[in-house]
Structures are given as structure tokens and as C-alpha cells.
């Protein structure tokens, strides 16, 4: 009962905050619970991030597959400083994602704060909740900085 209440609350929050992603995700999970398909929840939890990253990567690679990005476009991207900054951003992002995954494995209860923080970011900062690993990576960096500052 508590799970359904949380999901309905997230649906309302998503509707009020105009976040179709949160609304849709909560609706799908509510349908899974109401149709007694809870046995699939562990699989969704275990493989959901992988599937989400797969579809995100597919969407990002479509311009290459469709031929909209040509070799000359790739060369042009690195002829200016913005292309090199983008390369550094991609590399740092991938590194932070790996730190986030490690952090979540070591301290899984952090996911509660990350999920609530993502909802707050979507509702009040007009963010997009596609980066739980990135959020975990940033959390890992913040925790490390605080530990260094406090001396623990």
C-alpha cells in the first residue's frame, strides 16, 4: 500500500511539475504493481539503468548512423576550443559516472537522496532526470571534498 501511495504522489508531483518522465515512470510502475507483476521489479531495478543508457546512447548515435554527421564534421568539431572542451566534458562525465556506480554499490541508501534530489531538480530547476549515475558521481565528489575539508 505504501508503494502505491508513493507512486500516486509522484504522479501528482510529475503532473504539477509538468515532468512527463516522472509521471510516465511512476504510472508504469503503478500499473506493474496493480497488475501483480511485482516479480519483474527486481529485474527492472537491476537492468533499468543499463536499458536506459542503451536507449540514450542509441539516440545520441543516430546522427552518425543516419549519415547526418560526416567525417568532415568530426574533424571540424575539434578545430576549435569548444570541441576540445566537449571532449574533456565527455571524459570527465564518464569518469564521474563510474565513481557514481562505485558509490552506489558501497552505499546503496544514497539512492533515496539522489532520487528525491532528482525530483526536486526536475520540479524546481526544470532539470531532466537522466543522470542518476552522474548524480551519484557528483555525490561521490562532494562527499570526498567534505571528507577532505573535515579531515575524515
From TrEMBL:
Q: Which residues form a coiled coil?
A: none
Superkingdom, taxonomy of origin: Bacteria
Q: Name one Pfam family in it.
A: DUF441
- Give the transmembrane ranges: 6-31, 51-69, 75-96, 108-125, 131-150
Location in the cell reads: Cell membrane
| Keyword Ribonucleoprotein assigned | no
- Write out the GO cellular component annotations: plasma membrane
Membrane topology of this protein = Multi-pass membrane protein
What are the alphabetically sorted keywords of the record?
Cell membrane, Membrane, Transmembrane, Transmembrane helix
Family note: Belongs to the UPF0756 family.
What is the name attached to this protein's record?
A: UPF0756 membrane protein KCTCHS21_24640
The top of its lineage is:
Bacteria, Bacillati, Bacillota, Bacilli, Bacillales
Amino acid at each position: 500500500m505504501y508503494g502505491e501511495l508513493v507512486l500516486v504522489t509522484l504522479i501528482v508531483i510529475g503532473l504539477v511539475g509538468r515532468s512527463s518522465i516522472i509521471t510516465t515512470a511512476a504510472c508504469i510502475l503503478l500499473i506493474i504493481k496493480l497488475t501483480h507483476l511485482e516479480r519483474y521489479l527486481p529485474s527492472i531495478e537491476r537492468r533499468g539503468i543499463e536499458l536506459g543508457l542503451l536507449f540514450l546512447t542509441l539516440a545520441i548515435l543516430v546522427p552518425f548512423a543516419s549519415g547526418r554527421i560526416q567525417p568532415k564534421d568530426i574533424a571540424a568539431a575539434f578545430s576549435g576550443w569548444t570541441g576540445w572542451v566537449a571532449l574533456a566534458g565527455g571524459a570527465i562525465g564518464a569518469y564521474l559516472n563510474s565513481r557514481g556506480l562505485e558509490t552506489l554499490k558501497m552505499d546503496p541508501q544514497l539512492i533515496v537522496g539522489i532520487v528525491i534530489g532528482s525530483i526536486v531538480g526536475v520540479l524546481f530547476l526544470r532539470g531532466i532526470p537522466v543522470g542518476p549515475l552522474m548524480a551519484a558521481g557528483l555525490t561521490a565528489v562532494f562527499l570526498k571534498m567534505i571528507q577532505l575539508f573535515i579531515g575524515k
